[in-house]
Amino acid sequence: QVQLVESGGGLVQAGGSLRLSCAASGSIFRINAMGWYRQPPGKQRELVATITTGGTTSYTDSVKGRFTISRDNAKNTVYLQMNSLKPEDTAVYYCNADIITISRYELDYWGQGTQVTVSS
Hints:
Blueprint: E1 2-7, E2 10-13, E3 18-26, E4 28-39, E5 46-51, E6 57-59, E7 67-72, E8 77-82, E9 91-101, E10 106-110, E11 114-119
Parallel strand pairs: 2-11
Antiparallel strand pairs: 1-3, 3-8, 4-5, 4-9, 5-6, 7-8, 9-10, 9-11
């Protein structure tokens, strides 16, 4: 069994910063791409950023230059550093990982979500 556990959400004023973490644990053989998604109130979940095993990153346009995704492969952890936060960044943030289990099944896993609220 595999789990993704997120931490680091909270309430911050506009212009502030937060750092999200997501640690994967369990029956993991290998982790491929990892990413962060978010779901604003009343809206659909959207992709924020992704990172490959080798460190190649991509971002949705609205966060480019403000958010940085990174990962520590030794710790099976992905991070999202969020700077210059805006009220429109308010959402539940979910981490996602493409994981091959020790049974060699490749599955998509999700964290439980962490709330980020940016006040104006």
